[in-house]
Write a structure and sequence with these properties.
The chain has 220 residues and is mainly α. The protein has helices spanning 14-17, 29-43, 50-57, 62-65, 71-84, 96-112, 115-120, 130-142, 147-170, 200-219; strands spanning 177-179, 184-187, 196-199.
């Protein structure tokens, strides 16, 4: 006779029923990555632990190891996925320079929408790959840069833009900066110097313009 509360002989424990991934073995990599992106963008990459992510997904942590070797493997996939989701509407209007400006404004807007993942990309840098990057390379070459130099030039521009957004993102945590508008800030160093105001949108246009000025000189 089976003692009360004990499983019947024909039954198995819940752990015995689970596959190698535990209860979450049926999750897809995409589901895991999407939830990780949402968590990082909402609370920052420091909030994303495998245990926290598993709890958000309603599974046990071993379920995640079914799909990813470790947290680093997942983080690389998160950055790669967000990078691949970048979309830049193509336009044939204007000069190659104007189209490059449009291209990199879209890159900036994309990474600003994913602040947590952008912060994570400091450790796992995104690559200059995919259809958007290929179109960017074409525009660099249309500007007059030799094909053998186009990848390095495009990579330099991409790093300039993502670096700008990373610095832009830190302003909210700076003890010396105070927001006075949607894109306007005041820098006050408390060292006797007069506070200085600046607009990050205007500063980005200046930064990108200086980079493209250099690129056009190189092309000539």
């Amino acid at each position: 006779m089976t003692p009360p509360g004990s499983p019947s002989r024909g039954a198995t424990s819940s752990s015995a029923k689970r596959g190698p991934g535990g209860r979450g073995a049926g999750l897809s990599r995409g589901q895991i990555v999407d939830r990780a992106i949402a968590l990082m963008d909402a609370e920052g990459p420091q909030a994303m632990t495998l245990r926290r992510l598993a709890r958000e997904l309603g599974v046990e942590a071993p379920a995640l190891y079914w799909h990813f070797a470790d947290k680093g493997d997942l983080c690389r996939e998160v950055v790669r996925t967000v990078g691949e989701r970048l979309e830049v509407s193509s336009t044939t209007r204007g000069t190659p320079r104007r189209r490059l400006e449009h291209h990199f404004h879209a890159v900036r807007d994309h990474w600003r929408a994913h602040p947590g993942v952008l912060e994570l990309s400091r450790q796992f840098p995104p690559s200059a790959a995919g259809s958007v990057a290929r179109r960017g390379l074409e525009l660099v070459e249309e500007l007059g840069v030799a094909p053998r130099d186009s990848l390095d030039c495009y990579r330099s521009l991409s790093w300039t833009v993502t670096g700008f957004v990373i610095l832009e993102q830190t302003l909210g945590q700076s003890v010396h900066h105070r927001r006075i508008g949607p894109s306007r800030w005041v820098l006050d160093l408390d060292d006797g110097s007069a506070p200085s105001a600046f607009d990050t949108d205007e500063l980005f246009r200046t930064t990108l313009g200086l980079a493209l000025d250099g690129l056009e000189r190189r092309a000539r």
